[in-house]
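User: Can you predict the 3D structure for this chain?
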Amino acid sequence: MLELERLTVSYGGLRALSDVSLVVPEGTVVALLGPNGAGKSTTLRTISGLIPPESGHV
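Assistant: Here is the predicted structure, written as structure tokens:
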């Protein structure tokens, strides 16, 4: 299972994700969709440990 709880991520002074929560049960396939700048790549980078969250946890 993957769980994001109240995840907030910022680059410098720019907030990219704010208070994001998500639960993905084991065996589930998920797609992140949205316009440019919506935080899709930031979410994946934070899940993979490349970017530390400002608050919350994965």
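The CA atoms of residues 45 and 51 lie 6 Å apart. Residues 40-47 form the longest helix (8 residues).
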